[in-house]
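Translate structure to sequence.
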């Protein structure tokens, strides 16, 4: 008996209407052998959200023909699929042939059917005794005879050719006949069968059965049915967006997919982490006296968060938690403690702030008196350490103190002391941070042209569609005031689901807001390819605003040089407020990619793939393989995109000429350059066939030049969204389009008698229209290579943009950055440096780090240019008003001061105080490189710049400043000694140690004076380090003189300092020359002899040791005799050892 389809909700079990479902169908659901429910339309309902839809009384029977033993699981999947489709198409019933052993009954069902589904495999199943034919063969023949639409699916044979020969030969002949006379789909697994069947079913519904099956007028559908249709159509969506770019066989999973995966799965990450935080807060609440809210809200917090649908609801929950845990009070006291310990002096203000802190703490119910009593001393000790300790270490010390004060949880101990902990405030902040990330519904993949954005999005769409509903769109959609992004998603859904889908977003919200917490993923590839970017940006903005309380996520791709146009609009919605940068293949990826690509394109190579690392650019690899398809080689050179494009064109020309000998080479390249030239003239990346003078006959003739070139995947044809007849042509790859435009320019330039004048006019034209026709920028980069100008044209176009298109500088920063990275650094003039300075001032933070190496390069070539020094000043964060403000800025500042002084008579609304703009901190490496170059230039005018740069580094990070000091090792003496005069008496001992290190290879009067001072430094580690230098350093005459002069003032010298000086005087073997001994030996001995009567024994011991080095100036016996009479045992022991040696 046939069974009416079971309408299902998202679970695997059918839901029942509140009315009882009557009839044997309810019972039959328990038995897989029965496939129809006899249930009236009045007694069954489909539950979707809170809406019940009633199936149409119109009956549409679908017959499934298959051998049950071979296709049991496949039949079950088809039936479940038809159940889901029944939510959308009313009256669907199905009958599987194995439910009746009677051929006549099967025939009757076929005659009643509107659609036949046939599954064919290795087995033929039951045989009719009368005709000796399999039942499934007879069923197929009857369906064809009745002109019933047939969907036929062949399972890939699991049998070997030998086994196939022993099977029913008549059945094999029948199957071959089916293949010859029907449209057959082959499937290798159940997933593929389901996907293909749904796609075929929808097509049949629209084309052949639209009058036989009712559309569900209520347009109610479940998550299962939405997912089913999206999954079934995903291959079609991919083909529509990617054309021939995406080849699944050679797709290589990229590392960047893991970042997208964290975005896709963040909902579960969010819930898991919040659950753990709530558990921690519950545990903390048991150990502290908190407000009643803590004990009331915490047990309910997990459920409340899981049921929340918007950021507002989440924040309401965290506000309750903040109140319960005295969040604001704790934050205030934390800030006060940090302020107190960073006071420059321990004075009255310090003690006043300590008292204020304690007073505030006493107001909190969970504070212990013991913790309060220890706080002043702890703060005092911390305040002393702030100036010399690492910032991270100080913050850790502050937290250790506060562990005994504020609500917290300790996670790990070592040696009985806590080593890992979290404050309740930090846990609540983490929830807030997770909520912020959860609200960021968009992720953007940004990359160069040809780096694989489309391929990655197509691969992602396919994978996502296995678990979630997915809509994949192209950024080339035609946006108007009437047709926006939301409209195109609606249109895509209407292509999947029957009926009209106005207000689709709210309707989908109903089916997504369920315990499964599923998302609808909308992917838009190439948002930069839209023909109306300003309107498209606004449309995206409006669309994203609507996603706030909906379980819809947006995944976009954008070419990097266009990202600036979307940056401001999309940044607040970006997952973790950043883009995902897709780079070239890394070393591991490229080796795997080369193997995949070479196999696909049948390229034979005898050399190792590691030799082709220059093919890391995915577009370059693709064109390289297209060019060398079915080719064998041992060596390849000149692997640049420009060269590979040339090679690929040659191969295309040769192939077309070989197949159709009437064509000439110039015809093929001529067509492409004509296309590029027309795009340039019309400022469009897509042209109508009529604009290219291509007739309908040429467009439809397979052997026309137009179609031959199109067959090589260089260009493709697209139909406009709102035109049935108009067809446009565009290049498949943007970068290849730019290359062809450059080729068209090259042809025009070749005709000119005044090449340089023509080039200049072209550059000026490009600069003037760059904002409206961006491909011309990439074309200039190719033209520079074609003319072998090595960056000269790039230099010029940047200079022109700096003077004529300032808006382009600000709005297209990535494009400008790429241009600066391609400049001819050896031939830059004032105009380019002015442009670089202008760009550095307005560049966004994420772009400045890539800009920094260019500035450092310019500094190396033009160290004395005033603007170069300005840029370096900003890089080193030197607070110089002259470098930070332009004349206009200073004038505005002066005006604001004047307004402030006369503001007594103004209302409060007249002026709003604004914070100064944040300053970007360049990385330490770039700052150190800049300082090193300044030092190497050995320009005394740079002294102040170097000094202030090192000071600036010191304010932020001691290690950075010390590293900068090491660069002074390359400086000349004058610059070095100027710097040492600043740092040799610096407060922090680290600076003084580095000063000593800088003197290890410097000799003369000034080094001697600095070293003498450092040998007598107040900190032990400084003077000991300085002394250690003399294990290798030679001792010059100027140092001897300096030491003797200091020792002459012996009464003012500490004994440990005096010992340092004596030890150096004793290092006779390290004297710079023996002349020093001859000229100063007697004076050294005389000075040391005077010290032999010094009151402190350790000084006398060291003096005797040094004297013994000057045997030609002393009477050894006399000295040893004096030592033997000394009161110190160690001096007498030295005398004894000397006697034994003699």
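Result:
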């Amino acid at each position: 008996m046939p069974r009416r389809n079971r309408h299902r909700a998202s679970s695997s079990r059918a839901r029942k209407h509140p009315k009882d479902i009557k009839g044997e169908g309810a019972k039959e659901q328990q038995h897989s052998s029965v496939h129809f429910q006899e249930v009236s339309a009045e007694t069954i309902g489909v539950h979707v959200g809170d809406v019940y839809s009633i199936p149409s009384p119109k009956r549409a029977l679908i017959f499934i023909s298959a051998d049950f033993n071979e296709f049991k699981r496949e039949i079950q999947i088809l039936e479940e699929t038809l159940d889901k489709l029944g939510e959308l198409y009313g009256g669907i019933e199905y009958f599987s042939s194995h439910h009746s052993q009677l051929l006549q009954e099967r025939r009757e069902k076929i005659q009643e059917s509107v659609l036949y589904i046939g599954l064919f495999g290795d087995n033929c199943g039951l045989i009719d005794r009368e005709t000796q034919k399999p039942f499934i063969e007879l069923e197929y023949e009857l369906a064809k005879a009745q002109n019933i639409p047939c969907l036929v699916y062949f399972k890939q044979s699991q049998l070997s050719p030998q086994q196939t020969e022993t099977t029913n030969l008549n059945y094999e002949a029948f199957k071959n006949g089916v293949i010859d006379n029907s449209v057959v789909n082959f499937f290798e697994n159940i997933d593929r069968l389901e996907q293909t069947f749904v796609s075929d079913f929808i097509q049949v519904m629209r084309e052949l059965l639209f009058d036989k099956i009712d559309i569900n007028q209520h347009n109610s559908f479940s998550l299962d049915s939405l997912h089913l249709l999206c999954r079934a159509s995903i291959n079609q969506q991919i083909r529509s967006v990617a054309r021939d770019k995406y080849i699944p066989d050679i797709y290589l999973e990229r590392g960047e997919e893991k970042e997208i995966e964290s975005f896709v799965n963040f909902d579960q990450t969010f819930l898991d982490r919040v659950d753990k935080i709530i558990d921690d807060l519950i545990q903390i609440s048991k150990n502290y006296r908190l407000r009643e809210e803590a004990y009331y809200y915490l047990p309910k917090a997990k459920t409340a968060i899981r049921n929340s649908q918007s950021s507002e609801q989440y924040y309401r929950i965290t506000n309750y938690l903040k109140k319960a845990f005295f969040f604001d009070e704790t934050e205030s006291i934390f800030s006060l403690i940090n302020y107190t310990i960073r006071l420059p002096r321990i004075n009255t203000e310090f003690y006043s702030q300590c008292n204020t802190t304690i007073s505030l703490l006493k107001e909190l119910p969970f504070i212990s008196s013991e913790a309060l009593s220890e706080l002043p001393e702890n703060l005092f000790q911390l305040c002393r350490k702030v100036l010399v300790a690492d910032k991270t270490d100080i913050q850790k010390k502050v937290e250790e103190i506060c562990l005994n004060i504020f609500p917290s949880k300790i996670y790990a101990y070592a040696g009985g002391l806590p080593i890992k902990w979290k404050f309740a405030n930090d846990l609540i902040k983490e929830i807030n941070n997770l909520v912020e990330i959860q609200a960021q519904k968009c992720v953007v993949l940004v990359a160069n042209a040809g780096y694989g954005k489309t391929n990655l999005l197509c691969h992602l769409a396919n994978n996502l569609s296995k678990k979630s509903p997915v809509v994949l769109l192209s950024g080339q959609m035609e946006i108007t005031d009437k047709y926006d992004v939301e409209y195109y998603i609606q249109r895509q859904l209407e292509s999947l689901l029957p009926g009209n889908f106005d207000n689709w977003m709210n309707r989908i919200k109903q089916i997504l807001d369920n315990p499964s917490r599923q998302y609808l993923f909308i992917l838009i590839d190439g948002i930069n390819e839209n023909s109306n970017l300003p309107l498209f940006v606004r449309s995206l903005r409006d669309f994203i605003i609507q996603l706030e309380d909906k379980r819809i996520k947006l995944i976009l791709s954008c070419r990097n040089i266009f990202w600036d146009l979307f940056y401001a609009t999309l940044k607040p919605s970006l997952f973790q407020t950043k883009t995902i940068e897709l780079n070239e293949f890394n070393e591991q990826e490229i080796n795997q990619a080369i193997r995949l690509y070479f196999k696909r394109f049948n390229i034979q190579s005898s050399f190792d793939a590691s030799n082709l690392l220059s093919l890391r650019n995915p577009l370059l690899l693709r064109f390289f393989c297209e060019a060398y398809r079915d080719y064998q080689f041992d060596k390849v050179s000149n692997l640049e995109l420009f060269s590979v494009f040339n090679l690929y064109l040659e191969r295309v020309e040769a192939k077309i000429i070989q197949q159709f000998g009437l064509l000439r080479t110039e015809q093929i390249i001529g067509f492409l350059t004509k296309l590029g030239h027309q795009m340039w003239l019309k400022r469009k990346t897509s042209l109508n066939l009529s604009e290219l003078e291509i007739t309908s006959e040429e467009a439809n003739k397979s052997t026309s030049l137009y179609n031959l070139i199109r067959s090589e995947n260089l260009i493709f044809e697209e139909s406009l969204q709102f035109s049935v007849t108009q067809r446009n042509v565009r290049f498949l790859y943007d970068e290849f389009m730019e290359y062809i435009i450059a080729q068209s320019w090259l042809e025009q330039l070749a005709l000119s008698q005044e090449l340089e004048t023509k080039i200049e006019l072209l550059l000026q034209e490009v600069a003037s229209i760059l904002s409206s026709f961006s491909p011309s920028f990439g074309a200039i980069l190719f033209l520079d290579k074609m003319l072998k100008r090595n960056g000269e044209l790039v230099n010029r176009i940047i200079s022109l943009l700096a003077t004529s298109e300032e808006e382009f500088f600000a709005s297209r920063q990535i494009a400008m950055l790429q241009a600066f990275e391609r400049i001819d650094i050896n031939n830059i003039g004032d105009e380019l440096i002015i442009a670089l300075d202008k760009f550095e001032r307005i560049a966004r933070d994420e772009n400045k780090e890539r800009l920094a190496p260019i500035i450092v390069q310019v500094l190396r070539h033009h160290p004395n240019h005033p603007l170069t020094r300005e840029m370096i000043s900003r890089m080193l964060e030197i607070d110089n008003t002259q470098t930070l403000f332009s004349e206009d800025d200073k004038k505005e500042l002066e005006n604001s001061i004047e307004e402030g002084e006369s503001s007594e008579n103004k209302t409060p609304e007249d002026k709003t105080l604004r914070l100064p703009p944040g300053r970007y901190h360049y990385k330490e490496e770039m700052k150190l490189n800049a300082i090193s170059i300044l030092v190497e230039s050995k320009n005394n005018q740079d002294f102040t710049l170097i000094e202030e740069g090192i000071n600036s580094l010191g304010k932020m990070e001691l290690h950075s400043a010390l590293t900068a000091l090491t660069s002074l090792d390359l400086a000349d003496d004058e610059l070095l000694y100027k710097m040492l005069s600043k740092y040799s008496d610096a407060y922090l001992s680290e600076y003084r140690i580095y000063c000593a290190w800088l003197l290890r290879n410097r000799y003369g009067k000034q080094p001697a004076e600095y070293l003498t001072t450092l040998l007598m430094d107040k900190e032990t580690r400084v003077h000991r380090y300085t002394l250690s230098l003399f294990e290798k350093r030679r001792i010059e005459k100027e140092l001897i003189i300096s030491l003797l002069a200091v020792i002459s003032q012996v009464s003012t010298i500490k004994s440990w300092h005096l010992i340092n000086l004596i030890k150096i005087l004793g290092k006779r073997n390290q004297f710079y020359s023996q002349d020093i001994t001859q000229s100063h030996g007697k004076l050294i001995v005389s000075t040391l002899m005077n010290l032999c009567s010094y009151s402190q024994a350790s000084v006398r011991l060291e003096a005797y040791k040094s004297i013994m080095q000057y045997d030609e100036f002393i009477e050894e016996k006399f000295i040893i005799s004096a030592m033997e009479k000394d009161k110190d045992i160690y001096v007498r022991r030295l005398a004894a050892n000397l006697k034994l040696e003699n």
